[in-house]
């Protein structure tokens, strides 16, 4: 019973909530999901392979992709472009494999425009106090910067309403288990599977 | 963050699909869910306790409950009444505990009238062949009876569209894991939790 399309899962949430850590842990435990490979203009680091870690492109190539609308979303960090390639995501989904994207809140809202049928998961801090500690713990940011980032995070939390699920990151293992449960249960949604199940029964 | 109501989960599906076996296995592994205790007019068997295994009632008491609309659904099997007590389910949900009901397709549709907000899970046979084998395997039913039951099962499968999830019972352990995933992910649904999460953040 596997002529089903893959499902696009998008993990997002305010900065400092721990998206990257949760995503890494998830992929250590799970081999069914396909992590969405980003396109970037930054130089490959030692051991990084094109088409596995990233799709490495020149700045010109990347800007050409922007122009041709080949990216679902993109952003620029410290002088380098990062983006999500539309065709790659589409092809993977069509092959029946789920695709998993971990992305900032702004980017997630962009993805929603192209993939409204995706499953949007909002990673939620266990408390504001905790979020503050994590932002502080990251490095040597000034008081002002921390206050700004916290205000930013509060604004991002208000965007929770655009998501399908909210997962509290109280503990990495538990957050990962919740996300795994969402993946399994989304595959059991009646509107996704009823047609193919009825067909399978009818043809026997 | 636990001022949430419990969620009512209803496991149903065609006869012969293995609802009872899956439910028993689920409750051996899971102590968070509260199995809905039925009301019955049959005699307690040795070791069965009132209020734990069943609510034992006389025929008169049961019929009084029917009259007073105190049952979500009920049915009569081999001379005894069995029913689901409305107040008990409501109280358990209000205490914040999930309630789990395992029930025939007809009964599930009755439950839906009282609890449209419940989560309806349809247990699905891996194939018609397998369902037939299970119906035959149960005992010494005649060919005609088997054909009837299979036709009945096909009709019941058409009622799948009234459900939220479809879980294939290809293997008990896997079906149980899928149901557990549905329970976890339903608790992460944004429309269930966003209000309380925002409140929790605002109050800090």
UniProtKB/TrEMBL annotation, chains A, B:
It is found in: Cytoplasm. GO terms for molecular function: ATP binding; GMP kinase activity. It catalyses: GMP + ATP = GDP + ADP. Its EC number is 2.7.4.8. Coiled coil: none annotated. One of its GO terms (cellular component) is cytosol. HAMAP family: Guanylate_kinase (MF_00328). Belongs to the guanylate kinase family. Essential for recycling GMP and indirectly, cGMP. NCBIfam families: guanyl_kin. This is Guanylate kinase. The gene is gmk.
């Amino acid at each position: 019973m596997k002529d089903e399309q893959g499902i696009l899962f998008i993990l997002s949430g305010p900065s400092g909530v721990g998206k990257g850590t949760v995503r890494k842990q998830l992929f250590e435990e799970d081999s069914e999901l396909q992590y969405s490979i980003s396109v970037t203009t930054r130089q490959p680091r030692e051991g990084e392979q094109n088409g596995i870690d990233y799709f490495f492109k020149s700045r010109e190539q990347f800007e050409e992709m922007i122009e041709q609308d080949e990216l679902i979303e993109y952003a620029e960090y410290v002088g380098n472009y990062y983006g999500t390639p539309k065709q790659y995501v589409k092809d993977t989904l069509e092959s029946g494999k789920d695709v998993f994207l971990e992305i900032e809140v702004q980017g997630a809202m962009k993805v929603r425009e192209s993939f409204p049928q995706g499953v949007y998961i909002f990673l939620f801090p266990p408390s504001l106090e905790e979020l503050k500690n994590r932002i502080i713990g990251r490095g040597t940011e000034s008081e002002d910067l921390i206050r700004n980032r916290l205000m930013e995070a509060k604004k991002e939390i208000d965007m929770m309403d655009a998501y399908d699920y909210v997962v509290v990151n109280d503990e990495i293992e538990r957050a990962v288990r919740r996300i795994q449960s969402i993946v399994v249960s989304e595959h059991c949604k009646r509107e996704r599977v009823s047609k193919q199940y009825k067909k399978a029964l009818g043809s026997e």
